[in-house]
Design goal:
With 148 residues, the chain is mainly beta. The protein has one helix and eight strands. The protein has one helix at residues 2-20; strands at 28-31, 37-44, 47-55, 85-93, 98-106, 111-120, 124-130, 139-146. Strands 1-2-3-4-5-6-7-8 form an eight-stranded antiparallel β-barrel.
Length: 148
Amino acid sequence: MKLALLILFFTCSVAFNLQAQTVDDISGIWWSEIKASKIKVELVDGKYIGTVVYLIPEKYVDGVPQTDRKNPDENLKTRSILNLQILSGLSYNPATKEWTGGMIYDPKTGKTYECQVWLEGKDILQLKGFVTGIPALGRKSAWTRTTL
């Protein structure tokens, strides 16, 4: 009897995890890993993008949101990080239950990386940024679902 309950529990857990990740589940507002900004992920023109919609006031300089000062393009160094699109081009792959084919921009370094994204449950968004198509050498970050 205990074995039957254990198998039932395991089967339900697996079924929940498979159901939990559907194409639009990454849409919403997410805290960055260090909780310094909130990013809105949404579907635009068939691809998922992410835009910074909130910066904690501690990141402001003289009452103004931080700028993209590490950007390698001199013309973009003065743009605000607030309302900056940092995720682009993500598409859902139902076979892997991941969003792939996208790019992520890191304003702290001014660098752009290839990106893949997946969910752990409904409220943890895992991101991996990497270069030259080698995800194993990338850096992982976890974002937490929140509200604006």
